[in-house]
Amino acid sequence: MPSTPSAAGPARSGAPLAPTVLATLRNPKALTVEVLAGIVTTLALIPEVISFSVIAGVDPKVSLVASVVLAISMSFLGGRPAMITAAAGAVALVVAPLVKDHGVEYLLPAVVLAGLIQVLFGVTGLARLMRFIPRSVMIGFVNALGILIFTAQVPHLLGQPWLVYPLFALTIVIVLVLPKITTAIPAPLVAIVVVTAITMIAHLTVPTVGDEGDIAGGLPGFTALLVPLNLETLSIIWPTALSVAFVGLMETLLTAKLVDDITETRSAKNRESWALGVANILAGFYGGIAGCAMIGQTVVNVKLGRARTRISTFVAGAVLLLLVTVLSDVMEQIPMVALAAVMMIVAISTVNWHSVSPSTLKRMPIPETVVMLTTVLVVVVTHNLAVGVAAGAVLAMVLFARRVAHVVRVSRTVSDDGSSVRYAVSGPLFFGSSNDLVEQFSYGQDPAEVIVDFSASQIWDASTVAVLDSIESKYAAHGATVRFVGLDDRSTTFHQNLTGRL
Q1: Residues 6+ apart with CB under 8 A from 148
Q2: Are 34 and 314 in contact (CB under 8 A)?
């Protein structure tokens, strides 16, 4: 059992901490919540992992065992307690072309290389770059997630035997009504157990987990390295390894931020990054496929299951291991419709409905809404959360640069005796805003002494220094001299280091 004392890592002053593992172990009620949450999360995890193994082109047992390794190792190493990590769809989509074009034997070195990249990302602190993802992109990410989770369950309802529909309705009723009576046991767990028992006792013929793929047969051994470690292999695997590393990190860190918001606690993003890399290396050697945070299952764990510590993720991995090795016959009998119903409720609760309400959209700036909708649209079309987030972030940066380019103001004041002119510049100066600055001066009409006051402005990049050099050159051509005043210490040092050298 993991015994990490801090559940959330370093926290800012005043930021709450999640319950510690030790405190939870001493509290039977809290421990029960964690264990039951882990169990219900495992049941929600199984069909998706099996489906993703089909996408990736690997044996379902391989993905299940890799998920066991990922879940258990991250319960010890991860920086975001209660977040579920397993073989995920985003990673499956990335590795599928490699497996199809070159064979499954190249998967192991690609996964190990991806893990090393993720370790480097976490150790160097680059995980902090996630702070630059705008709120509108994050909302789009959450809304798109809800849509993808919901639509992924639809095939388990449409075109199925009619018995599926009353079982679906029963699951929905239990999940929605039981919490009003008691919260001692997670309603999704009760619903899945009841519906499974009904189908087994009544011998109902409906699609089950076993229909998704073969999950019996025990544990596979260590993954054998079947390709030579040379430059040719590296040339084949490095594009996939980079994609796995960054897609996995992006989805994991965004999910960590989502859990931070749900639980009102903080997580250690850098730790989560290098821990994911280590877990993927372990999963590569024993399982053969990489993974990342499972967003839907994490929502099940922290929202429906009310889990808050590493205990729930450890239990999820341990129960999955038990199901794969000992109870595979029972697991195969779980009706897919019960799991689909639970995940549909998760999907509906995941969507930020306030963000798409008419009153909110009316008040929200149009660029913010465009970024949010673009993120949702790209994710839904590509079925890739990472691609959608990247598209939304790039669009947000472009729109931001466009807005900021027009915030710089220049005012001109001529002295009473006409011997000098003073220009006051306000606003941040960078490549997007400073390029037009050179056109704000009256070179031919100004007197011989020109003062440019930057008391209300700052220099942020070399493009701005080049613009200031250009202004000096234009005035020199007219026999005038320019003095730049009012720069803060950082801007002064930056300007002095680069002026005349660009």
Answers
A1: 347, 379, 380, 383, 385
A2: no
pTM, full prediction? 0.72
Quick one: angle between helices 231-263 and 89-102, nearest 10?
170
Count of CB atoms situated within 10 Å of the CB of 410: 16
**Better-scored residue on pLDDT, 174 or 127:** 174
pLDDT of residue 54: 64
Tell how far CA 172 is from the center of its chain: 29
What are the backbone angles phi and psi of residue 80, rounded to the nearest 5°? -125, 95
Render the burial of 93-127: b for 16+ CB within 10 Å, e for the rest.
Answer: bbbbebbeebebebbbbbbbbbbbbbbebbeeeeb
**Burial class of residue 356 (count of CB atoms within 10 Å of its CB; 0-12, 13-18, 19+):** middle
**Residue 335 · residue 98 · CB < 8 Å:** no
* Beta carbons within 8 Å of 28's beta carbon, 6+ residues apart: none
| Spatial separation of the C-alpha atoms in residues 216 and 210, rounded to whole Å | 9
**pLDDT greater than 90 at residue 482:** yes
Q: What is the C-alpha to C-alpha distance for residues 41 and 323, in angstroms, rounded to an integer?
A: 13
Question: 303-315 burial string, b = 16+ CB within 10 Å, else e?
Answer: bbbbbbbbbbbbb
Query: What pLDDT is attached to residue 325?
Result: 85
* 279 neighbors 85 (Cβ within 8 angstroms): yes
How far, in Å, CA of 422 to CA of 415, rounded?
8
The sign of the CA dihedral 316, 250, 150, 372 is positive
CA 89 to chain centre: 13
| Residue whose entry in the numeric block shows the structure tokens 């399982």 | 287
User: CB count, 10 Å around CB of 11?
Assistant: 15
Q: Residue 457: which of 431, 436, 422, 487 has the closest Cα? A: 487
Q: Which of 79-83, 196-200, 285-289, 312-316 is least confident?
A: 285-289
**Residue 334: per-residue pLDDT:** 87
Count other Cβ atoms within 10 Å, centred on residue 44.
Answer: 26
Least Cα distance to 303 among 160, 186, 443, 461 occurs for 186
Rg (C-alpha) for the chain, rounded Å, is: 28
Q: What's the chain's length in residues?
A: 502
Query: What is d(CA 163, CA 192) in angstroms, rounded to the nearest whole number?
Result: 16
User: Which DSSP helix (H) or strand (E) runs through 417?
Assistant: none
Cα–Cα distance between 48 and 201 in angstroms, integer? Answer: 26
Answer positive or negative: Cα dihedral of 305, 310, 312, 317.
positive
* Rounded Cα gap, residues 266 and 268, in angstroms: 7
Please list, residue by residue across 199-222, b when 16 or more beta carbons sit within 10 angstroms of its beta carbon and e when fewer do: beeeebebbbbbebbebeeeeeee
Q: With cut-offs at 50, 70 and 90, classify the pLDDT of residue 351.
A: confident
